[in-house]
Design goal:
ten-stranded mixed sheet; alpha/beta; globular; six-stranded parallel sheet; binds ligand 26W; 48% helix
């Protein structure tokens, strides 16, 4: 026996060398038992399914970690160029089943669970969603990092580890009630805290200029109140390729001095309590999806994300290259997910100049060639503007840098357009008039080499409208990257029956090359294949009914047309138009106008921002209309309206396989892209939609005859605005008149007087920005076409197959390949296992 205190020369190597973990059912089973009994200390007396979930997840997580370290080392060895995806939101959803699929241990785990007598589905469903995002933008970030890992690209996601994610939505008396989402309550087996990469973040204080030891003038940011950003890493596995990338989420904590400052002032308790101030920064996700609210805490969050991430990347660089930044821009790039992290432009300048001693021009050259900006919305109310005063208080050094960037930029503008003062005012990073504000989108555009929109129409509108001045100055910066979704989660994992049928029919290549789905079209005349397709879809509809059964207590027939609209509740997305159509169908039933009727079940789900009054009223209206319709015996099976509470990633995984019809009915020109539209299409639903966002490209892919188009075009919408007269339209349309009468006479709010007046008034207002009434007739007509198509079962099945077969373009593998080929230019790195 060697002496206990004996020191070996390389202890770390000796404990780092691990035997490979087995992937067979028995080996996984052994680990599950060991985790359950040893690590978690549970036995047969424990009745909670949570610890079984945890034991299984730890077993799966170990297998990810093995590949994670190999990936990390492969990137180190190659010293390859890297990209960083900076985002305030990563809407990851659940991890377990995706990890199993991507590791290729689905079958082995199923077998292990079967042998242990465990219900795998129940375990999977016990995982809380990581709801660290609002909607489209956050889920896009999650799909993107999945595709980056599958394409073996060295991309790291940087985000925030919110203690509370997107609120849970309860419906009480038809109204939304928000409940905090403490998703970390039971711990999170998928994250690894990495204290060794903690970063220090400054807030407050002021700046001073002094000569440094070399006699150069330098700016020092002093008397700041610092907080620490502690990283928690989450593994991001590629599809069965050995690559596991990293999502690094920052948590804010107090520094030790933070306490001391207060302690020395004499109040120990206050000083400990003050720790909360620091920790509050990453306490909660802001639940707004289209409204900036100018809150100081939100700016703190944004700066913490930008500063911690950039310091992390610079530390990695310096560890390898010392203080030589010559090649930095060739080896690094940052993709900014909307303007939320765009303070990174100024922060990179600060770090390079103040901390690493670069001159302005050198720092600016690096910044301009490493940052790229993606815009996700045209809505003016969503464009971030931060008050200059707030900036001065909170980030005094950053506002100096922003003013300097602006001064240099505006002199470029006036050199190009001498004397054009109104253009200078329009393009300035600082909005004047009363209080000064920083226009964050302009900071992002000026500080980056690329500006992209997320669908063709949206990118075109950015160039012609919102960013036209900048497009004239730098046309080469502007480009489009149409969104996508990952087919692993959104087809393979969420719809295993359909995935199996597809694989049996065309092989399994589609999982990494979705364009291969096109081969399904060769089988649309094969009766057996079509019958199976139909059977799979009917089974998915039945599962959707069962999933909602206890909760909703409504009988729904699996033969009804499942007509689904799930997304954030927003006036521009026009859930109201959907409701008007439902009321119209109800009215037809009540009038006995039901010849050739198609039974329909309309499902609507989505959260309203807690402060968005109108969106909350829309939820209430949907629930009230549902209540009347679903309890009217005369209506029966002909029509159902169901509000799906607490819509989230894991809900969509159950909903999209069971949809027949996907509602994508935004006012043309308002939905930047949409991504739910792609998930439905991929699972064989047909779309009823306007010419908006990616709908246009979906229709191009499937052909006009396989898409239910309606509504005004973006150009028509804009030209109608000046002489829009909804009251006149209502007068001329008897169906619409009756619908409006039902709303106005209080038919859906008999004991709740006037609660829908705001909705009625907005619909009838000539200034309604969403011109809902203008598209009513065309929507109803398109819905009639839907019914005709649905009545012809064979035709519908073919259309469904064609939709799935042509969804190849909407894989994020395609989107990410475009980002990489045109913007990032990374080389894939093979990871040897
Ligand atoms: C500052 C408050 C705030 C928060 C979030 C403003 C705006 C946002 C996002 C831009 C909202 C969002 O998620 N946008 C959606 O992004 C998707 C991914 O590109 C698109 O598919 C959707 O059309 C777009 O609405």
């Amino acid at each position: 026996m060697p002496h206990r205190r004996f020191k070996k020369s390389h202890p770390i190597e000796s404990i780092s060398n691990l035997p490979e973990l087995g992937m067979k059912p028995k080996e996984i089973e052994g680990d599950i038992k060991s985790y359950y009994g040893h690590r978690l200390g549970r036995d047969e007396n424990c009745k909670s399914v949570h610890y079984v979930y945890e034991a299984l997840s730890l077993a799966v997580s170990d297998r990810l970690t093995e590949r994670w370290k190999k990936t990390y080392n492969a990137y180190r060895k190659e010293d390859c160029k890297r990209a960083y995806y900076l985002s305030m939101e990563f809407l990851m959803g659940r991890t377990l089943s995706n990890a199993m699929l991507n590791l290729g241990i689905d079958d082995a785990v199923s077998q292990a669970c079967y042998d242990l007598g465990l219900d795998l589905e129940e375990l999977i469903d016990s995982e809380p969603d990581a709801g660290l995002g609002n909607g489209g933008l956050g889920r896009l970030a999650a799909c993107f990092i999945d595709s980056c890992a599958t394409l073996q690209l060295p991309v790291t996601g940087y985000g925030l580890r919110y203690e509370y994610g997107m609120f849970s939505q309860l419906i009480v008396n038809g109204e939304q009630v928000e409940e905090p989402d403490h998703w970390l309550r039971n711990g999170n087996v998928w994250e690894v805290q990495r204290l060794e990469y903690t970063q220090r973040i400054k807030f407050g204080g002021h700046t001073e200029t002094h000569l440094d030891e070399k006699g150069n003038s330098r700016v020092y940011w002093v008397d700041s109140h610092d907080v620490l950003a502690v990283p928690f890493d989450v593994p991001v596995p590629g599809y069965q390729n050995g690559t596991v990338n990293t999502l690094r989420l920052w948590k804010a904590t107090a520094t030790d001095e933070f306490d001391l400052q207060e302690f020395n002032a004499g109040d120990y308790a206050e000083s400990v309590a003050a720790k909360n101030g620091a920790e509050n920064i990453t306490m909660v996700l802001y639940p707004n999806d289209a409204n900036e609210n100018g809150k100081e805490l939100r700016l703190r969050q944004q700066y913490l994300l930008a500063s911690a991430s950039l310091q992390d990347v610079l530390a990695l660089w310096i560890g390898r290259h010392g203080n030589d930044f010559t090649d930095f821009a060739e080896k690094n790039c940052f993709q900014l997910n909307d303007t939320h992290p765009s303070i990174a432009v100024a922060e990179l300048m600060r770090l390079l100049i103040d901390i690493h001693g670069l001159k302005w021009d050198a720092a600016w050259a690096i910044t301009k060639s490493t940052m790229a900006y993606t815009n996700h919305t045209l809505l003016p109310e969503a464009l971030e503007r931060w008050s200059v005063n707030l900036f001065k208080q909170l980030l005094p050094r950053l506002i100096e840098i922003i003013f300097e960037i602006n001064a240099r930029f505006l002199s470029e503008v006036s050199a190009r357009w001498p004397g054009d003062l109104s253009r200078i005012a329009r393009m300035s990073l600082i909005e004047e008039g009363g209080q000064q504000h920083v226009r964050m989108a302009y900071l992002a555009i000026v500080g980056s080499y690329s500006v992209n929109g997320v669908a063709e129409l949206h990118s075109k509108l950015l160039q012609q409208g919102l960013f036209h001045d900048f497009y004239e100055l730098w046309p080469e910066k502007f480009n489009n990257k149409t969104n996508g979704v990952t087919p692993r989660r959104w087809l393979a994992a969420c719809n295993p029956e359909l995935a199996e049928l597809i694989t049996e029919t065309i092989g399994d290549g589609w999982l990494t090359d979705l364009s291969l789905l096109k081969k399904l079209e060769l089988h649309i005349d094969d009766k057996v294949f079509c019958d199976r397709w139909y059977a799979v879809q009917q089974a998915a509809k039945q599962r959707l009914i069962d999933y909602k059964k206890q909760e909703l207590d409504i009988d729904v027939s699996v033969n009804a047309l499942f007509d689904v609209q799930v997304k954030r509740i927003h006036e521009y997305k026009r859930q109201l138009l959907n409701v008007l159509h439902v009321i119209h169908l109800y009215d037809r039933i009540k009038r006995g106008d039901t010849a050739n009727w198609t039974d329909r079940c309309v499902l609507i789900g989505g959260k309203a921002a807690p402060g968005y009054y109108m969106a909350k009223k829309i939820i209430k209206l949907i629930n009230n209309v549902a209540n009347v319709i679903n309890h009217d015996p005369e209506v029966g099976d002909k029509l159902k309206l169901i509000f799906l509470p607490n819509y989230r990633v894991s809900a969509m995984e159950k909903i999209c396989p069971g949809a027949d019809l996907s509602e994508q009915i935004s006012t043309a020109g308002k939905e930047a892209s949409g991504t739910g539209n792609m998930k439905f299409m991929m699972n064989g639903a047909l779309t009823i939609g306007t010419l908006d966002g990616a709908n246009i490209e979906i229709r191009e892919e499937v052909g006009d005859e396989n898409f239910f188009l309606f509504g005004l075009t973006e150009t028509e919408v804009e030209s109608l605005r000046n002489n829009y007269d909804p009251v006149a339209i209502i007068k001329q349309d008897e169906d619409l008149q009756r619908v409006m009468n039902l709303l106005e006479c209080g038919h859906f709010n008999q004991f709740e007087h006037n609660i829908f007046d705001g909705i009625v008034n907005s619909l009838k207002s000539p200034h309604d920005p969403w011109i809902t009434i203008a598209d009513f007739r065309s929507f109803v007509d398109a819905q009639k076409q839907v019914e005709l198509a649905y009545q012809d079962k064979e035709r519908w099945i073919k259309m469904s197959i064609i939709n799935c077969a042509n969804s190849g373009k909407f894989s994020t593998d395609r989107t990410i390949s475009e980002y990489n080929n045109e913007l990032w230019k990374l080389t894939p790195v093979k990871v040897n296992n």
